[in-house]
Amino acid sequence: MHTPRNIIAKKGAKQVGKMTSGEKGKTATTLCCMSAGKTFVPPMLIFSRKNMAESLMNGTPSGAVGCASLNG
User: Fold this and answer.
1) Domain residue spans in the chain?
2) Per residue of the chain (72 residues), what is the pLDDT tens digit?
3) DSSP codes joined into one string, 17-67
4) Are 40 and 33 in contact (CB under 8 A)?
5) Which residue, 67, 17, 63, 25, is CA-closest to 47?
6) What integer pLDDT is reported at residue 38 of this predicted model?
7) Contact yes or no for 30/56 (Cβ under 8 A)
């Protein structure tokens, strides 16, 4: 089933811009898990890159795990 989308632009505009994230379209995958007994597992962040840099984990919650994946 196709969901229609509304495009809002100035009348007569020949170009309509698009929005991307502040990181120029780069995103990270986050895995968050909790059991039915309300036990949390620290989050895991998967970055789309070849090598993991520890600086990517600055400001993350305590116990968070980070890794790199070529396809994110």
Assistant:
1) 28-69
2) 566 666 666 777 766 666 555 556 577 888 888 888 888 888 999 998 888 988 989 998 889 999 998 876
3) -----TTTT--EEEEEEE-TT--EEEEEEEEESSS--GGGGTTPPTT-EEE
4) yes
5) 67
6) 84
7) no
